[in-house]
Predict the 3D structure of the following.
Amino acid sequence: MDFNKARPIYQQIIDAYKKALARGDIGPGDRILSQREYAQKIKVNPNTVQRAYREMEMMGMVATIRGQGTFIVPDPEMQQKIKKEMAEQVLTYFIEEMHALGFKDEEICSLLEEKQKSSKEVVADD
Amino acid sequence: MIEFQNVSKRFGTVQALDHIDLTIDEGKIVGLFGPNGAGKSTMMKIMAGVNRADTGTVSIGGQTPRQAKEFVSYLPEIDHFYPWWTLKEAADFLRAFYGDWDQEKYGHLLEFLKLQEDMKLGKISKGQRAKCKILLAVSRNAHYLLMDEPFSGIDILTREEIARTLIQDFADHQQTMIISTHEIGEIEAMVDQVIFLDQGQICLEGEAEELRNEWGLSMVGIMKEVFRHANSR
Amino acid sequence: MPTAGKGRRFWTLYKKELRELTPEIVILIATSILLNVYAYFKAAPLTGLSLTLTVGLAAFLPFISSFKLSREWKNQTVYLMMSLPASGALILGAKLTALMTELVIGGLAAGTAGGLAIMASYPGEIKQLMSMVPNVYSNLALMALFGLVNVMFFCCISFLAQVLGKLVRKYSGLLSFVSFIAILILLSKGIEMINAAGITHFGLGMGLNPPLPFPDPSSYILYSSIIVAIVSVLVFIAAALIYDRRLEL
């Protein structure tokens, strides 16, 4: 995992788990790496990993069962919620930036449609 | 806890440390950053009890550095082992002095770092020697681990191995580790606390994650900023 | 957590020092054998000289070896030694014990090889001579003790001078040299004065010579040895204190 070292690393760890969950790389009930294993794997301070895991527990994303490890909470709704939440973040950012460039909502919609069409053609050409 | 109170140290005309006040909590990995000649090694040597502060006091877990030697594992920048020693002889020597020597850990790390006990310390490559030094320093469960430029002259793959070794060790034993380096990029994700040192003074000190948050910069970026300001003073 | 005992630390340091002195010890044994064997077979009249030479070398070499202390700085191994939880007394004590071991082994090698050579060369004369000297073995032992404490004296001064030299960054070699000469002269004068008192006390002074071809000066030698030993211990303590309290990198 490559970090953007200009942002707090614990946040990036949380984001990485959220993304994996949204994409379905990991699912509800799955066991994730222990803090120790994860710290070693990505060469990050164990205290930082601990902080990320603690926050994910508080967010209700993961639960640690003594002696068994840390698991994604077996709640499909939570996965959907995170997926939505992340999409929401990306959209907010996108719309804000487009507004900042002076686009109106209708223009944004049509630009988006155009873009999606051209992307599909590129994919079809391949 | 390690405490520096108003510590100064002068070597001839060079003011190596200039009124240092600092507190390092237990169970932290601390990065001591700064350019060459900033005073990093001097701070390390004073903590290791091989140099004395001219003024001020240093306490390590409530003791003087000289009394605390038994609990401190010090890895100097230079090669401090007898060149005619084999790795095994060096390990046997250290084992006699430190009650916290962990033979099992030593055996495990020996394998992990792909070292052989019959290697002669004076006759192996620089990278191998650096690995031997790390092995011998962390084969103890010392409360305090002081490492002065542990990565200097080591290739990138070995650096990663060493970083992993240190993280594993830290996770297992919750030591207090102080790592000095002028190459921050290597370990910036590893540290809890950072201390930026320049011309014997602390320019900036704090929790790494808080500093990233406040500055919106990496440690390397923060250091550049800090030293630019320091030098234009 | 069990802490390693002082005895084990001392033994570990001593073994390391002895290993560093191994080349010298080998040289002493080899020279003793070669020189005395050569003298016996090729130049029999010179067996006395070869005995003196090899015993002298055995006494002299440990003193030269004592200057290896400074090499710890040059080799940077002083970083290791000073970071160890071991006092100056323990570290310097191990070094001194190793030097004395070198002396004893070298002395025994030279004494045995030279003694055998000289006895083989002049069997009759030696027998006669030995019968004339009273208590020949205890006197030999006394002479050995006298030699040992005097070499120890020189080694302790060498330690003190080197430690003093390391108190400064520049010209530390020069300071060591000057301190060595100064301390040696000073202490020798002091010992001479105490010895002078001893000479009078034990009736060995001028005009008080006992009318014997071989006076028995053993009491005096023992007295002098004890004086030198006490002074050596004081010098050693001074060196160990400076090592602990003042020395740094």
Notes: Confidence is low (pLDDT under 50) at residues 211-215 of chain C. Chain C is about 80% helix and 0% strand. The two ends of chain C are 30 Å apart (CA to CA). The first helix of chain C runs from residue 6 to 42.
